[in-house]
Structures are given as C-alpha cells and as structure tokens.
Amino acid sequence: AQTVTQSQPEMSVQEAETVTLSCTYDTSESDYYLFWYKQPPSRQMILVIRQEAYKQQNATENRFSVNFQKAAKSFSLKISDSQLGDAAMYFCAYSIRSNFGNEKLTFGTGTRLTIIP
Amino acid sequence: AAGVIQSPRHLIKEKRETATLKCYPIPRHDTVYWYQQGPGQDPQFLISFYEKMQSDKGSIPDRFSAQQFSDYHSELNMSSLELGDSALYFCASSGDRLDGYTFGSGTRLTVV
C-alpha cells in the first residue's frame, strides 16, 4: 500500500527560528510528485511547495525549502524565519498517476505547528 | 485568479436526510477530486473525475454518488446521512500535473 508518514503530530518553534517537519513515504512508483500543504484554522488547504521526484534539486519557495532524499523516501520541510502566520496543520502528500491515467493525491496524518511569540 | 468554488460553505442535515455538495473547478482544469476530512483527521480521497468520466474511486460509501457535468462542475450526493458523515468535504481540481491540486474552501457538513 502507498503510505505517507508524518512522525511528529505536533511541533513548536520560537518566532524567527527555523523548524523542520519530517515526512517519509512508501511507494513502488518511480514517477511521482511530492507536496506540502498548509491548513490554517480557516481549514483552507493551501499549497506550500512541490517537488518532482525526477528532479534532484531541492525545491525552494521563499522561506520554505525541502530536503528530498529519494533513496530514503524522505521529504522534509524546512521553514526559516518562522512567522506567527505559519501556525497551521501541515500535510505531506504525494501524487502518483492512477490506473485511469489521472493523478491521485495521498496525504499524511499531519503535523500541527505552533509558533511561540 | 479564479479559484475552486464550493457551495454551500456550511450545511446542517438530520440523520437519514440527503445532501448535495457542489464544486466549480478552475476553468480549463480537467480533473476534479473529492476528499472527506473528519475532525482531527487527514483528508481521505473519495472519488475523482477526468473529462467528465469517473476516473478513480476511494473510500466512498455506497450511499454517496458523484458526477461531473458538461460544464465541468461536479456534485457529490449523499443519501441516508449518518452522524459519522459529519466532516469537511473538499473539492480540488487540477490541470497540468506540475501545478498540483487547488483546493476549494470546503463544505462543512454537520449531521444531527
């Protein structure tokens, strides 16, 4: 079965500090995409960053970057200079092409990030 | 830019009633997905449509059905509602694979 594991149910970080959220996944596919989504208290699901599995270079979006280790099937998210607005539930997810030809997104169980002022 | 529109935002139904949730994807996106997120849970995939045809099915109860119409909007129909159906229901759409998924704001269904 394809699975996504986030081993840290909760994390906290001091404002302006750096925090890393862990994610591992298990798939037999070689062609897939990885994502981090953020879900603030508003419950809106917001895309933070994405990574193509065939790319070795780690994706970066402003203060957000990933450490993608394909052999280890690890996809961690680093948030630099944490801000109060970063407080949210963070979901790791991956997408593979289903038998029907379209994508299927599978989520991890989430990590709740608290920012300490 | 246009986003994924879901309606209604909130819905309260009694047990055994029927509910219909609507989703309007981003224009030119050809795939629509439905997810169910229970309290404190991660989103669970229900069903997807590609070019108006059902393309994949997840853990969707037989009491639920969905379809995608000619204008690409999708509806999720839920019958014989149970208390356990209370959840946030997300719709997402995608076009190009690299773009990932754009989620709507969700419909919060409460069954009483």
Question: Would you kindly provide a brief summary of this structure?
Answer:
The complex is a heterodimer of chains A (117) and B (112). Chain A is an all-beta fold.
Any low-confidence stretches of chain B, pLDDT <50, length ≥5?
A: none
Note the beta-strand portion of chain A: over 45%
Helix fraction of chain B by DSSP (H/I, runs of at least 4):
under 10%
Helix tally of chain B equals: 0
Question: How many strand units of chain B?
Answer: 11
Instruction: Characterize the largest beta sheet of chain A: strand count, sense, and whether it forms a barrel.
Output: 6 strands, mixed
Form type of chain B? globular
Helix content of chain A: under 10%
Q: Which sequence of SSEs, written as H and E, runs from N to C of chain B?
A: EEEEEEEEEEE
Q: What's the gyration radius of chain B in Å?
A: 13 Å
Can you tell me about this structure?
The complex is a heterodimer of chains A (117) and B (112). Chain A contains no helices and twelve strands. Chain A is mainly β. In chain A, a hairpin with a 2-residue loop joins strand 7 and strand 8. The model of chain A has no long low-confidence stretch (mean pLDDT 91). Chain B is mostly beta strands and 112 residues long. Chain B is globular. Chains A and B meet through strand 5, strand 6 and strand 11 of A and strand 5, strand 9 and strand 10 of B.
